[in-house]
Backbone:
């Protein structure tokens, strides 16, 4: 029997049921855990957890990730800037250096800006106060209705609705879906997505999907994919994904009946409930991501 790939779903905050704690990603967890091989064996063993340590203190798992049995880390940066310690950054970087797959996602303005301290994939995330988008003309609010949230805050639609994505050529394996047109067409929408892009001097990364603001009509990047590459020390880096918003994976954005934290003020949409393809598309993307991140993983077992 082949051992399942070990995936860690991890937030950057301690458990708080009135926040985007790991319990609000239960549909993602259950979907990954449900995937099986052609012989009926589980493909993935999924561990879903929040931080066990307060801000500024090292989390026992994140601070020793390179020595763990995990093959992939899906990091949901839901903090306000202090969610990863320097020791944890070193450990996550070492995890990728030994071949671990890495998906890093955040949200608007400075939400999740702790990921700026991660090498490579961290630099693909642009924030308000740190590492802003290179184009100064984008240093302005896109969603103008929520005055408490500043740029970057691209409006792709209401929570619970879906957005039409623009795959970039050549079509990346992450965006293939054999069930419909052959490519993924929809992601869950969110009224204030963050910003991602290819870091300067990164030759192994490219933007693979773009969204469109419903307010300004501006295009903005949704996903940056990093292929495996040998670094200056001779390490074969695992593949990585930088995602513009963790709301693409949150329960509330797949099914609004599961609820949101009390501070969410925008009314929900109904698009994901009305269009089965939209849900199947994000599930196909999740399935593709787990497979793609694994294919260059160096397993310790």
Residues:
């Amino acid at each position: 029997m082949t051992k399942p790939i070990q995936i860690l779903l991890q937030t950057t905050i301690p458990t708080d049921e009135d926040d985007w704690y790991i319990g609000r990603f239960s549909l993602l967890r259950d979907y990954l855990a449900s995937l099986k091989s052609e012989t009926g064996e589980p493909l993935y063993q999924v561990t879903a957890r929040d931080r066990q340590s307060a801000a500024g203190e090292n989390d026992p798992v994140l601070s020793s990730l390179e020595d763990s049995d995990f093959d992939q880390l899906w990091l949901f940066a839901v903090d306000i800037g202090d969610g990863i310690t320097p020791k944890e950054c070193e450990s996550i970087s070492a995890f990728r250096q030994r071949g671990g797959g890495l998906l890093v996602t955040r949200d608007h303005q400075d939400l999740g800006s702790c990921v700026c301290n991660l090498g490579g994939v961290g630099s693909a995330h642009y924030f308000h106060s740190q590492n802003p988008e290179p184009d100064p003309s984008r240093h302005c609010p896109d969603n103008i209705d929520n005055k408490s949230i500043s740029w970057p805050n691209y409006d792709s639609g209401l929570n619970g609705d879906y957005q039409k994505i623009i795959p970039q050529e050549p079509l990346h394996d992450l965006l293939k879906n054999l069930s419909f047109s052959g490519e993924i067409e929809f992601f869950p929408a969110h009224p204030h997505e963050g910003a991602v892009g290819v870091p300067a001097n990164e030759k192994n990364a490219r933007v693979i999907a773009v969204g469109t603001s419903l307010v300004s009509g501006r295009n903005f990047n949704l996903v940056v994919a990093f292929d495996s590459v040998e670094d200056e020390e001779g390490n074969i880096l695992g593949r990585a994904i930088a995602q513009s918003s963790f709301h693409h994976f949150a329960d509330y954005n797949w099914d609004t009946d599961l609820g949101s934290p009390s501070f969410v003020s925008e009314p929900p949409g109904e698009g994901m409930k009305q269009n089965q393809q939209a849900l199947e598309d994000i599930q196909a993307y999740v399935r593709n991501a787990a497979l793609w991140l694994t294919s260059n993983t160096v397993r310790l077992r």
User: Anything to note?
Assistant: The first helix runs from residue 26 to 34. The chain has a mean pLDDT of 94. The CA atoms of residues 72 and 101 lie 4 Å apart.
